[in-house]
Amino acid sequence: MVFKLAWRNLWRNRRRTFITAGSVVLAVVLAVFMRSLQEGVYEKMIENVVGFYTGYVQIHKKGYWEEKTLENSFEAFPLISKAANQDDRVSATVPRLESFLLVAHEKTSQVAQIVGISPEEENSLTHLAAKVVEGHYLAPGQRAVMVGEGLADKLNLQIGDSLVLFGQGYHGVMASALLPVCAKLKFGSQELSNQISYVNLDVAQNMFAAPDRLTAYALNLSSAGSEKSVTKQLRSELPDEYEVMDWREMMPELVQSIESDRVGGYFTTGILYLIIAFGIFGTALMMIKERQYEFGVLTALGMKRGLLSQVMSMEMILMGMLGVLVGLAISVPLVIYFHYNPIVITGAAAEGYAAFGIEPIIPTAINPSLIFKQGLIVLGMTLLISIYPVVKIFQINPVEAMRV
């Protein structure tokens, strides 16, 4: 009976119902879209930074991350790549041999980071081929070097010029090579552009006198969020002499940056919720004022206040549920659209994003738990606000109410 009375009351005054439910719909859409945008920025930041170089997970020899030298390299043990590749969550296993050498051209020299790579596998993780602005991408087995655009400018290098590489290899052996420049690479990070160069893995191993040795395996995952479980699984399968680290362990400063910004986002969302709560409360006040005469007549005729308050609470619950369902029905397509058609940032702001190696776009995050959580929060606020009409019903004076 309470449900029937509440349901009929809703449609007895459609205008009032639509206004109240509409405020809930607007609240849900704003809350979902704002939180999805915030989390979407974080996801894109992680994707850019992780896909920029490190990968979601890396495998090293124990101690390498604290002291990145060739002495902490390891032999390309087949068990490692097998353990990684047999996991369906790992989409690419990228071998690398990294060190620093003195590079020179004509009368100019500079210390640069030399990275030995497998071109095809590296491109699957970092999309390195897309960063080529001049020349051609490194072919497998080719004795050539790709240099960052900033480094090329400092050394006055052109495509086809010879670059001298000289320094210390594995176990103190002299490392040297003379390689032609096959490509210039443009990175969002100017620091990286000023110091990095890429050569084929076999060329690097021969130059450093480190045959079959690697400094790291970088792993790309088919889906973000599985790095913790993949890391745990690999740690249990690999010998103790290897260390497996996910991107959170390798880049704690990025984690701290995201967490501190997320706290600010919670504060902003809290203000939004406060505004939403006042909006819903305002519609509840309007509803009480409009129906004051009705409540006075019902109580004067003998309707129990407890029953009347139950009917009123049920009306608020039904309007809240209706608003939340419609709000989610609008929010989900909106979030999906802006996930695949993100907001594009232009002008100086875009240059600022590019300086940190981040795409100047703001997508929304498709996270079902995030979306439905906002709906539940708004519904909870609506139920909490429904206490006020109940209190007013118990305080109502039938005679005064019917004079209105």
Walk me through the structure.
With 404 residues, the chain is of the alpha+beta class. The protein has 2 domains: 198 residues, no CATH class; 167 residues, no CATH class. Helix content is 56%, strand content 20%. The chain has a 6-stranded mixed β-barrel, surrounded by 4 helices. A two-stranded antiparallel ribbon has the order 2-10. The protein has a two-stranded antiparallel ribbon with strand order 13-14. A hairpin with a 5-residue loop joins strand 7 and strand 8. Helix 1 crosses helix 12 and helix 10 runs parallel beside helix 14. The chain is elongated. The model has no long low-confidence stretch (mean pLDDT 84).
Element-level helix/strand string? HHEEHEEHEEHEEHEHEEHEHHHHEHEHHH
Please identify the structural class as seen in this structure. alpha+beta
Q: Number of DSSP helices?
A: 16
> What is the approximate shape?
elongated
Radius of gyration: 31 Å
**In the residues, how many domains can be counted?**
2
CA-to-CA gap between the ends? 28 Å
Number of strands: 14
